[in-house]
Amino acid sequence: MRFRVGKSSAGFGVHVVDGDEAVNLTALDPAVGEDLMGLIQGEADLDQLSGRIAEATKMSLDAVTPALPVANPGKVICLGLNYVDHIKEGGYDIPEYPALFLRVQNSLMPAGAPMIRPSCSERLDYEVELMVIIGKGGKHIAEADALDHVFGYTLFNDGSVRDYQRKTHQWTPGKNFDATGAIGPDVVTPDELPEGAVGLKIESRVGDEILQSSTTSDMLWSVAKTIATISEFTTLEPGDMIAMGTPPGVGHAKTPPRWLRPGETVDVEIEGIGICSNPIVAEEDIATFEAAE
């Protein structure tokens, strides 16, 4: 099943998507709650709800505004280098251990929301990524068991301010500008995808311009290996998110560099999961943009 967290006239809730329509699961069972945590933690039973979806009132997707799938994730852990050709275009050596960094809450926003180009830099880059949502926590998780800990998969656009990323060996500044990391809108459960989400076309675009195009089969560290590796040093918890790195084709590696510009809309897409689309807005224009919405 596909899930979308949306904002309707009834407020925030979990919606299951069927074509161009959606059913508000929160309205069917208040135990579902306002984000996916009710389903992740088993407070609501999706199998029981499934039998009621066919007869439930449906709404147009146009009436649903995406929100973050998990409103307040405990941890958002990102892989910086997980596709060989992307590693090479960035001038790095192929690592023996994954390059990991954290995203803070203020840097995240949902699909459809403006991705903000900061006033201090024009070097806003795009990165399409597979994102894993943890369903069952644990520490020292064996690679053979790791996929049992996945609740679902969604999309991530790891918007990166490259000059700030390169100011230091630690990537924190360039990866944590406000409203640069887009997540969602759809969350797909593992049973609807190949094991470990392998072999899926992954792409980023602005209009008809294809920026990145690859396959998740090219990841150095699989989803299972990544979960096992991360759980060696931190306890993974339900609702945590892991971004699986980006393929080649990022803007800073092009000649000339291809930065995202205000007025554009960037789309990132993964086969079988969906599209995350966000307009690019200059920081100095954000108040005007929001007033016009």
Automatic annotation (TrEMBL):
InterPro entries per record: FAH, Fumarylacetoacetase-like_C, Fumarylacetoacetase_C_sf
MF-aspect GO terms: isomerase activity; metal ion binding
UniProt keyword DNA-binding present: no
Keywords in alphabetical order: Metal-binding
Pfam (any one): FAA_hydrolase
Protein's GO biological process: carboxylic acid metabolic process
Domain Fumarylacetoacetase-like C-terminal stretches: 75-281
Similarity section: Belongs to the FAH family.
Protein's name according to its UniProt entry: 2-keto-4-pentenoate hydratase/2-oxohepta-3-ene-1,7-dioic acid hydratase (Catechol pathway)
Organism of provenance: Aliiruegeria lutimaris
